What does this fold into?
Amino acid sequence: MNAIGKPAVARLIFALDERLRRRNGVFDYDADGDCLLRLQLVKARRRIVLRDGVRLQPSDRVLELHFRNEHIPPMGPDGATVAWARKLMKLLDRSFEQLWEFLRSRPDLADVAAIRGVWHLRSLNKLQRIQWAAPRFGFELVPETDTFGRKLMSIGPNAMVLLLVIASNPKAAHLDLLFQKPVVLFLSRRALERRYGHWTEQEENKKALQ
It folds into this structure.
């Protein structure tokens, strides 16, 4: 359903989200399909060495992932079923394949060596799920110090997340979304190419044979 077909409150929430995205430089890299992700060009902000040897300095540019909440499959009456999770995984795979295609087409982003994702957890009990799912897409957890200042800075983004969930997937909306704990993950450009580069080559070969 597009924004026009949504209730008035949902349209207001999406309009606010769009305004904040424009102000913060968050953009779509595949606006026409079912891509679940958006991008924001940011600084690494700290020194990091990833498992495959990629080294990041605080001033290095990285791409930060943002969910396109309006494209996440809505949950049915039974909540997060196995079928729903499989559909989500398939869409994420396609989104990362599109991300690799985007990076290949942008020489101005050749210096970007890693992609960062921040997953917000309602409780640390769900950390095990992230630890299981993250390597599936090539990500690794890179913990950050949980300071009081970081907690304060998370209040605004958590409130926006709650509003977007209410607008796009109300069955998943709970007040504890306001108190989520951020978990930081990194995916190196090398790992992205290893996992999704061959998909792009296969698609190109198919098109060449048509």
Residues 1-5 have pLDDT under 50 and may be disordered. The CA atoms of residues 2 and 194 lie 35 Å apart. The radius of gyration is 18 Å. Strands lie at 26-27, 37-43, 48-49, 55-56, 61-67, 114-121, 140-141, 181-188.
